[in-house]
């Protein structure tokens, strides 16, 4: 869910925008009063009832398993290790690129759809589109073809530059981005840099 939230989610909101937040709506409804023609006031909500009672507290919903950050770090370690192996052996490991960029492209399509078409005020602009964007998916066949042949891929080079700038400018991006995104961005950066290194070694 954090990935879908854009930079506006970090800005102060007014009463109108509070209507998109369920617990604010509940508070406003509970304090609202209706005044009739005789000047008599009555509450808008006379009573509350939970439709589904789980009996669980907030602490009970906390997962004791692996966190998103741990998952992202594990993925980065595996990708980095595979990339080092591929560079040393002169292998492109294009299958790894196919999986990573396909997943990043799917995520980018979702983020782009929300940013462009959603009426929710907090999903656009989303600076994560510099990392996960639809071009990963649309340019995938041409990019993989270049990688397989160990040819220079301008897409990979451009992606390498964009991701490098994104990481370097992380601190000043006007959006609170979860740190778990950093290892994911590094995965794509490492794979983009791998194509550049293998191309230079081929010469």
TrEMBL record:
The chain crosses the membrane at residues 69-87, 99-118, 124-142, 154-173, 179-200. Keywords: Membrane, Transmembrane, Transmembrane helix. This is Lnb-like transmembrane domain-containing protein. Residues 62-202 form the Lnb-like transmembrane domain. Pfam families: 5TMH_Lnb (PF25221). InterPro entries: 5TMH_Lnb.
């Amino acid at each position: 869910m954090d990935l879908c939230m854009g930079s506006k989610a970090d800005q102060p909101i007014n009463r109108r925008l509070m209507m998109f937040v369920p617990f604010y709506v509940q508070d406003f409804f509970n304090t609202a009063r209706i005044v009739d023609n005789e000047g008599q006031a009555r509450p808008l909500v006379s009573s509350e009832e939970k439709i589904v009672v789980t009996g669980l507290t907030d602490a009970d919903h906390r997962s004791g398993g692996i966190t998103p950050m741990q998952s992202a770090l594990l993925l980065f370690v595996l990708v980095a290790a595979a990339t080092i192996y591929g560079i040393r052996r002169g292998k492109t490991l294009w299958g790894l690129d196919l999986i990573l960029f396909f997943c990043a492209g799917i995520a980018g399509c979702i983020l782009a759809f929300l940013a462009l078409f959603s009426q929710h005020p907090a999903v656009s602009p989303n600076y994560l589109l510099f990392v996960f964007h639809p071009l990963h998916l649309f340019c995938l066949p041409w990019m993989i073809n270049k990688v397989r042949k160990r040819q220079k891929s301008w897409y990979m080079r451009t992606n390498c530059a964009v991701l490098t700038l994104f990481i370097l400018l992380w601190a000043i991006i006007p959006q609170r981005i979860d740190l778990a995104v950093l290892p994911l961005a590094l995965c794509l950066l490492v794979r983009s840099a791998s194509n550049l290194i293998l191309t230079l070694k081929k010469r």
